[in-house]
């Protein structure tokens, strides 16, 4: 069998959506063990307020990933806009290796840039201001110093505000900015980019500096599972039924 690597993102796991959780567990049990590696490109959880918020649900997710890791499949994690407070404690429980926000990996001879993708949505100025603060050093430290119940209330309020704001944003603003896609790929000197965040699964063919390039967008897991399989033979973006 040709070696391959799996990519997933935007699962938005929560205790309230057991259909998503069960789809993930089935994937981890039946398909993922055959892969050389699994990359999770952010928004694994609908909301993550700190590694001290451990319960039966979050531990079941950590255990599922850790079982896969113990089967010999390395797991890599890039933070998303919903779970940027994931730290070493949860990563250790889940057997995950935390990666930088942007990282270039060699996928079967093709240098590939990986990221969650929210940093490319530069036309959403208000969100980018929040992102800069949230990914800095002082804001996460301040948030994690608050009592767990306070963080839950703040996260709920923030989510409600975000949902209201999204209703006033155009489709163009909520998507990536094409010029910034090209610039990022040029800066990292790659011809392939894989990201999530926009919930618009697709494989986009590009031309950068006169050469063919590719931007692959992972799908979300709200209505079905979404996985990307990459091998030396190519890429395959597929869905998993709940």
Would you identify the CATH architecture? 4-Layer Sandwich
The CATH topology, please? Purple Acid Phosphatase, chain A, domain 2
Topology pattern, helix = H, strand = E: EHEHEHEEEHHHHHEEEEE
Arithmetic mean of pLDDT: 95
Major sheet details: 6 strands, mixed
Please give a structural write-up.
The chain has one domain (about 5-240): Metallo-dependent phosphatases (Purple Acid Phosphatase, chain A, domain 2, 4-Layer Sandwich). It is α/β, with parallel strands linked by helices. The mean pLDDT is about 95. It is globular. Strands 4-3-2-1-10-11 form a six-stranded mixed sheet. The chain has a five-stranded mixed sheet with strand order 5-6-7-9-8, covered by helices on one side. The chain is built from eight helices and eleven strands.
Salient structural properties:
5-stranded mixed sheet, 6-stranded mixed sheet, Purple Acid Phosphatase, chain A, domain 2, 242 residues, globular, alpha/beta, 36% helix, 8 helices
Helix-strand layout with pairing:
Blueprint: E1 4-8, H1 18-30, E2 38-40, H2 56-70, E3 75-77, H3 88-94, E4 96-98, E5 102-107, E6 110-115, H4 125-134, H5 138-144, H6 148-166, H7 171-174, H8 178-188, E7 192-195, E8 202-208, E9 211-217, E10 225-231, E11 234-240
Parallel strand pairs: 1-2, 2-3, 3-4, 6-7, 7-9
Antiparallel strand pairs: 1-10, 5-6, 8-9, 10-11
Helix pairs in contact: 1-2, 2-3
Could you give a quick summary of the protein structure above?
This protein has a single domain (4-240), classed as Purple Acid Phosphatase, chain A, domain 2, CATH 3.60.21.10.
